[in-house]
Specification:
single chain, 70 residues, mainly alpha, 2 domains, 76% helix
Amino acid sequence: MTRLLEKAIDKVRDLPAAEQDAMAMLILDAIELGAHPAPLDAETVAALEESLAQAQRDEEVAALWKRHGL
């Protein structure tokens, strides 16, 4: 499994069950239809990884605010 796919799977694990199922259906449908995404260049992979990291930071900040009732 690639590092990017592992990161995506880790993110999906944090979603509610219904959203996890929706993501699973998207992946399975793509595989069954033989849909293969275009290869990603290193710059695009880096941008996706940064987006995932930013989303994680945003979630951490939101959780911090929530813990303090803000």
